[in-house]
Specification:
Two copies of one chain form a homodimer. Chain A contains one helix and nine strands; from the N terminus they run βββββββββα. The first copy, chain A, is mostly beta strands and about 160 residues long. Chain A has one domain: YaeB-like (Elongation Factor Tu (Ef-tu), domain 3).
C-alpha cells in the first residue's frame, strides 16, 4: 500500500557551519545573514554539480539529523501560541526534512562556499536545486500567524525548545 | 559512518492533480499557473495542519515516485546542453525529492485545495512548510544556464525524457 511505503534516502554530502550547538543558532536564514558555511559534496556525486556555480542562490534540502521523533503541534520560537507543525519551520516534523535558500559565493571542485546559512554544523545534505525566482519566489497575500513577525526573525535565536 | 547512513521517510499524504501521465505535464509551477489540485493529508497527521490556512503560499516537499535511478548529468527540457543534475530540476536525482511552492486556496479538514501545481497525480507528499518570502524568496543576481529562459518555462512541457 502506497501509504505505508517507506522511502530510503542517503546523504549526498555535509553542510559545515559555525553553529556547533543549537543554542544561539539563527532560526531562519534571515537571522543567518552573512554567516558563511561550506557544503562538501561526496566525490561520487561531484559530477552532478556542473554549471551550478552559474546560479547566485541555491536550495538546500537536508536532514534535521538531531531531531528525534515529532510533535504535530508546537509553540514556535516566533510566537507564544500553539500551531500545527506544518504551519511552522520547527525541526521535529513527521519527516525531518529541512529546506534553506542560500547564496552560492564560489564552487571549487566538490566544495560549495555558501552564505546566509542557518543549520547546525554536520547537517547531512539530501539534495541541491537551483533557486529560480519565477517559480520559487511568488508574491504572497497572507502570512498567517507570522504576519508582522517574519521581518523580525533575524533577531530571534534558537533555544533548547526542540532538543531531543 | 554518517556518509553511509540510510534515512527513512514515510509519506504524510498524497497530491492529486489533473496530470495522469508525464507527457504534456508542465515542467515547473509557472507552467502550471491556474492548475488546481488537492493535497490529502493522512488523518493521523491532520493535527499538524492547524493554522496552515492563514498562509497564501505553501512549500510542498514530495517524492518523485516515478523516477527510478538517477543520472548525474542531464539535458534538461529548457536547454540543449548537458548540465549537472543539481543545477537542474530534473526528477532523476540521487535522492528523488521534489519541491514546489503552490498557492493554498482553501483547507477543509485534512484536504488542501491548491493552485499552480506541477506534479503528477498520486505523488507522495513528504512535508509541508509555510512559504515565507523574507527567508525563502531572495533577490538573485545570476541564473546560470537558465538566464533569459526561466520566464519562458510556462511554455515548455514535459516529454518522455525522464521516463524510467
Amino acid at each position: 500500500m502506497m501509504k505505508k511505503n517507506i522511502l530510503l534516502f542517503k546523504p549526498i554530502g555535509l553542510i559545515k557551519t559555525p553553529f556547533k550547538t543549537r543554542e544561539g543558532m539563527p532560526i531562519q536564514p534571515t537571522g543567518a545573514k552573512g554567516i558563511k558555511g561550506e557544503v562538501e559534496i561526496y566525490p561520487e556525486f561531484a559530477d552532478g554539480l556542473k554549471d551550478l556555480d552559474g546560479f547566485s542562490h541555491i536550495i538546500l534540502i537536508y536532514h534535521f539529523h538531531l531531531s528525534d521523533g515529532f510533535k504535530l503541534q508546537v509553540k514556535p520560537f516566533m510566537d507564544d501560541k500553539i500551531h500545527g507543525v506544518f504551519s511552522t519551520r520547527a525541526p521535529k516534523r513527521p519527516n525531518s526534512i529541512g529546506f534553506s535558500v542560500v547564496k552560492l559565493n564560489k564552487m571549487v571542485d566538490n566544495i560549495l562556499y555558501i552564505e546566509n546559512i542557518d543549520v547546525i554544523d554536520g547537517t547531512p545534505l539530501l539534495d541541491i536545486k537551483p533557486f529560480i525566482p519565477e517559480v520559487d519566489g511568488p508574491k504572497t497575500e497572507k502570512l498567517g500567524w507570522l504576519e508582522g513577525k517574519s521581518d523580525k526573525m533575524g533577531h530571534k535565536q534558537s533555544d533548547k525548545r526542540f532538543e531531543k
